[in-house]
Amino acid sequence: MLDALPLTIICLLPVILYLPFLAAPFERDEGVYATIAQGLLHGKVPYRDLFDNKPPLVYGWYAFSFMIFGEHLAAPRILASLLLSFTTLSIFGQARIVFSRGVAYCAAALFGLSTGLPFVALHANTEAYMLLPLATAFLAFTIGMRRSSMRWMCLAGALCGIAMMTKQVAVWNLLGLAGVATVWRWRDDGLRWTTLRPAAMLTAGAALAVALIAIPFAATGSLGELFYANVSYNWLYVGVLSYGERLADFSEGFIFFSAVAAPLVAGAFWGLLTVVFRRKQPFDYLIIVWAAASAAGVAMGGRFFPHYFLHLLPAMAVLTAVVGYERLARRRIEPLSRPALGLALLLVAASLTTNGVLYLAPRLAERHVAQNVYEQKEWEDASQALAQYVKERTGPEDKIFNFGREAQIYFYADRQPAVRYFSDWPFWWDDQTLNQTVAALRLTRPVYLIDSALPPLFPDYRQYHPPVLMSLLQTDYDYVGRIYFADVYRLKGSIGSPIAPGSELNALMAQNYSFQ
To answer: Largest alpha-carbon pair distance within the chain?
Structure first.
């Protein structure tokens, strides 16, 4: 019993680190997932009734958390922290098969601690749900290689399929494992048809998992919508950026990630060199392929938000543990040169300083480093109060619409979106979606229309407010006023009267962002 205590404590690290942030306001992405999950629980079909470009299981994870823990913003984060705890255990198991027990403990501890990195983790984004099936697939594949078992290969493929249906980028890890499996059999059997058998079992397992998850969409006649959202639309989403913009975005994202996780980044690079040049076991190279596949997954989106790098943390934790344990725990301690010691201290100081500032004074840091991030967080904080305002003036059956990206308003107000495209992202990548949405709004006639596409996050008012939308506002809606960060409109002829822009309520609630 006592032997399991250290591992139990390590596996609980994600839960412990998430506890202070369970009640933090939803981020925009979390608001989208929560809104679709609410719709799912009310019988709506993702993509057909409520559009987003993530695979369906993320909405299933959110809906499951609401069923277990209740429909509040802490529920998805509680589930995410629990899944990350099991991910920690899975990382320990995989590392223990390939490396020593000490390396396995170090890898699990490093990953558990890394789940507390601000902006990288501490939320309920897709990566937090993807990592458990992905890490468990890695474990199953390693067991399959050890035992030459095709059943374990099929299980590994199925788990990769589940991860892919949580976030598409997991496909790179499946391809990496298929490549390793093919080379592994080729070295033993030569060029025969059996050489491709492990890769075929991986692919079959993944295809089976994807097919099973797609059955509800086939049953509701929405396979086309599923394909469009996850393939066609994402192609538009990724392709809109030039290679120069992608490079700039990557540089910004990697610099931030390196600042908050500096020792882990350096340790992973050092561990990578150690595995490549100093170790000779074939299984050691498996982690190199896994790390490369995870890096490809991070790059696949074309954008490099900090939470994308969560995908890399399992591989980085194992690589860092390899070199750390061998140098320290195995008494292979060698005196560090002064430059090396200075660099190590600099990396630790940079990481501790960055994390300390983000934990102790997040708003101050955001305001001085990234004003747009500061404004976005301010809007996220105010979304709950704005949603409460709308909730008090509508009934459960009423629909609302937010023009902008603050989808969390729907969840907080407990009101369903009036139309399929309830966030403005699709309007910029697919020209048809805006006209379709305005036409649908004229039919559904939501009681409140909330315009959150305003400065400073949307700097040019005219650019972000096309004539077709302005015509709808002028003909069908009365202007209520600026409430917190948004312009609020109420359907003409609906119960209640608009609040004059200069009224006492508006003055109390408004944050005056000036624009032309």
So the answer is: 81
Q: Are 452 and 387 in contact (CB under 8 A)?
A: no
Please count the CA atoms within 13 angstroms of the CA of 408 that sit on its side-chain side: 21
Instruction: Provide mean pLDDT across the span 161-190.
Output: 90
Q: How far is CA 56 from CA 46, 123, 389, 427, 502, in A?
A: 7, 18, 31, 21, 44
**Domain limit, last residue, from 309, 333, 357:** 333
Whether the per-residue pLDDT at 497 is higher than 70: the answer is no
pLDDT digits (tens, 9 = 90+) for 304-347: 889 999 999 999 999 999 888 776 665 554 555 566 556 666 77
Q: Which has the closest alpha carbon to 258: 183, 351, 178?
A: 351
Which of 27-41, 459-473, 483-497 holds the top average pLDDT?
Answer: 27-41
- Cis-peptide into 501, omega within 30 deg: no
Round to whole Å and give the CA distance between 50 and 423.
10
- DSSP secondary structure code for residue 122 in this structure: S
Mean pLDDT over the full length of the chain: 88
How is residue 377 written in tokens?
Answer: 């967080």
The reply to whether 280 and 327 lie within a common domain is yes
Asked if residue 155 lies in contact with residue 140, where contact means CB atoms within 8 angstroms, the answer is yes
pLDDT tens per residue, range 219-234:
999 999 999 999 999 8
Are residues 390 and 272 part of one domain?
A: no
Query: What total number of domains does the chain contain?
Result: 2
> What b/e string do you get for 357-373 counting C-beta neighbours within 10 Å, with b at 16 or more?
bbeeebeebbeeeeeee
Q: Judge residue 208's burial from the number of C-beta atoms within 10 Å of its C-beta, 0-12 exposed, 13-18 middle, 19 or more buried.
A: middle
